[in-house]
């Protein structure tokens, strides 16, 4: 990335937009180089007053910056952060602006393929220049500064634009990776995009059992959550693989061994594998459905 900060426009001002936005501003990104489009007046006012940025009710206006109080610099990056059900209409609505300004378009919309974004952008101008596209799959721990993410870039994305994409994503993800095929985005969704819910399910069961064993609910919840956080930190900082770490805390015929053997007998590992695969399959199905919009 060049020394000048990129001008970043968010289409959609929801939670994930705010997570990226707050991270950018905390690390010194100038308020003159970020704009947001948000349809709801109350949310507009919240973002405007909280972050001292230009917030617009119209998508095209956010892209041009006309009528704002900050800057009308053309966008270097446009982040699509809207619901999948409306993304087709949104992209068709801003297609002319995207073709004119040629920014890097980053989508955090789950289940929508790059070919469909390209089709919507060129619906009225099939011969228009290709707009570079990146699919970004973040996850909700980004909201507390502990996100993980995967990205895929189409062939029109330059090395400089990849650096711009990393500049955006590093503000919400402590771990982020490029995948070499679009199918890899579905795998990222299955592992980390939907992954927090898997751990919430486990923590919910541990909390419930702790209460049944006589612990106060808050004590059981915090013990389980800190244990999960500590285990994750060990995985990220140890030279041992996950299987070895598990074996190191599982003494033969000990308490942990009893728990692990019972979980294996109840086919817990197989259930996790099946669940992750079901998530990926649903991602693929959604991609087909949204491609018809």
How do the strands line up in the largest sheet? Answer: 3-2-1-4-5-6-7-8
Order of helices and strands: EHEHEHEHEHEEHEHHHHHH
What integer is the average pLDDT? 93
Strand content: 5-15%
Q: Structural class of the secondary structure composition?
A: alpha/beta
- How many domain units? 2
CATH superfamily of the largest domain: NAD(P)-binding Rossmann-like Domain
Q: What is the highest CATH level, the class of the largest domain? A: Alpha Beta
Distance between the termini: 35 Å
SS elements, strand count: 8
Number of helical regions: 12
Q: Globular, elongated, flat, extended or rod-shaped: what is the shape?
A: elongated
CATH topology of the largest domain: Rossmann fold
Mind describing the biggest β-sheet?
8 strands, mixed
Rg computed from alpha carbons, rounded to a whole number of angstroms: 22 Å
> What oligomerization state is this entry in?
single chain
> Considering DSSP H and I runs of 4 or more, what fraction of the residues is helical?
40-55%
Poorly predicted runs: none
CATH architecture of the largest domain: 3-Layer(aba) Sandwich
Binding site for NADP(+): 11-16, 81-84
Family: Belongs to the pyrroline-5-carboxylate reductase family.
Organism: Coemansia asiatica
InterPro entries: 6-PGluconate_DH-like_C_sf, NAD(P)-bd_dom_sf, P5C_Rdtase_cat_N, P5CR_dimer, Pyrroline-COOH_reductase
């Amino acid at each position: 990335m060049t020394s000048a900060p990129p001008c970043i426009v968010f289409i959609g001002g929801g939670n994930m937009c705010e997570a990226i936005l707050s991270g950018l501003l905390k690390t010194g990104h100038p308020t003159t180089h970020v704009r947001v489009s948000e349809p709801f007046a109350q949310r507009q006012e919240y973002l405007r007053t909280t972050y001292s940025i230009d917030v617009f009710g119209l998508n095209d206006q956010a892209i041009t910056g006309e009528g704002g109080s900050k800057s009308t610099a053309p966008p270097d990056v446009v982040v699509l952060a809207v619901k999948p059900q409306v993304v087709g209409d949104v992209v068709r609505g801003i297609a002319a602006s995207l073709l004119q300004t040629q920014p890097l378009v980053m989508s955090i919309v789950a289940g929508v393929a790059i070919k469909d974004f390209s089709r919507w952008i060129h619906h009225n101008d099939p011969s228009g220049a290709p707009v570079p596209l990146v699919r970004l799959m973040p996850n909700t721990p980004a909201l507390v500064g502990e996100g993980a993410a995967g990205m895929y870039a189409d062939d029109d994305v330059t090395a400089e634009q990849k650096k711009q994409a990393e500049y955006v994503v590093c503000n919400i993800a402590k771990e982020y990776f490029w995948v070499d095929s679009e199918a890899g985005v579905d795998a990222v969704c299955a592992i980390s995009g939907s992954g927090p819910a898997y751990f919430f399910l486990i923590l919910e069961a541990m909390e419930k059992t702790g209460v049944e064993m006589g612990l106060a609910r808050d004590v059981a919840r915090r013990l389980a959550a800190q244990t999960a956080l500590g285990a994750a930190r060990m995985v990220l900082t140890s030279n041992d693989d996950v299987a070895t770490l598990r074996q190191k805390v599982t003494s033969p015929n000990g308490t942990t061994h009893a728990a692990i053997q019972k979980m294996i007998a109840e086919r817990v590992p197989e259930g996790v594998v099946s669940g992750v695969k079901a998530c990926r399959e649903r991602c693929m199905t959604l991609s087909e459905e949204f491609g018809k919009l």
